[in-house]
Amino acid sequence: xxxxxxxxxxxLNVIKKNIIxxxxxxxxxxxxxxxxxEYLHIWPRDALFAIMELKNFxxxxxxxVVKNMLQLPTDNGLFYQRYKIDGKSDPMAWCNSDxxxxxxxxxxxxxxxxxxxxxxxxxxxxxxxxxxxxxxxxNKFTSTDVWEQKRGYFFYSTATLIWGLTCAEKVIPESKKxxxxxxxxxxxxIDLFYDEELKSFVKSPSEKIIDLEILLGLNVLFESGxxxxxxxxxxxxxxxxxxxxxxxxxxxxxxxxxPIRYKNDPWNGEYVGNNGNCRPWPMGVAIISQTYSHVVxxxxxxxxxxxxxxxxxxxxxxxxxxxxxxxxxxxxxQIEYDGSLPKLVPKPLTWCASEIIKAERLYLDILQxxxxxxxxDMLPNLYIIEPNFNLVxx
Length: 394
Prior knowledge:
disordered C terminus, 13 helices, Glycosyltransferase, two-stranded antiparallel ribbon
């Protein structure tokens, strides 16, 4: 159990206050749309990511929320894209038909269930959801990307499918034989997303787009426990991708950098424009910090200490950026290029809060590991960052 430090207490409070429905956590209480309540909905993906972080600090509350979320009505076993606070599917939502569906939320269902082994589940409903999820993958239906902009096969979507199938094996042991070949094919496809010319993983092999969702996918793969990056070559690919994203997507706001989602993003947090009017995404800073922390963790395991040094310095830099993001206390979806807060931007955003919690949790973990390795003289002459708070783990 982690003790609350840094920004964690504030971010946790955001998540808890956004549990205003017994069916889950709303995306944000304020935002664009009629009566400024467009984000006053339950997005399964956002809520499930938040539940996973909440579990580290308040497991009982997290368990009660996920129990109720699993009771949400489904579309033949699959989550709808979003729900009203009364638990009914929202008819104004999109991405709810074959080929136009966001499958990451259904993959995350099994990830979260695997983290709560004591939850009593309706086995009939669980297997219905699993088979519906599996059939989408077997039939190779395309998925809508995380930002609801494109349809196809994407890096982040592929990563979540891998994680979801792996966790489904823990929940439904007999499922392993059913998707052994599918999982193998998905894992092998990861290499196809790395573009040698760009020196970066890309959104899809056919569309060589640099998108923040690439790091979402990398972080998911690191968290899957499959050890897909446990070589120097693989870690260098991740570091190269980070550098490309920093160059292509990050903008200066005062003394720090904040990424946009992707170039020509039409969504600015208040309305959709025709020519791309994106604004910087605060949670993107946390996502970059997380990726560097993951690299440190793996580099330590495989003894690549030069990579440890490089990744650690960058993990520290991006972690320190988080607290200096203008208006970060509002946990907004986006901010202006001058750091000011757009009037109707969604806030406080649950997903933003959970990504910040994860960034701090991962950073504290690697500091503890670095201190341990240095104590036993495995890391001679390594520059050790002293945090401005004490790490305490029970």
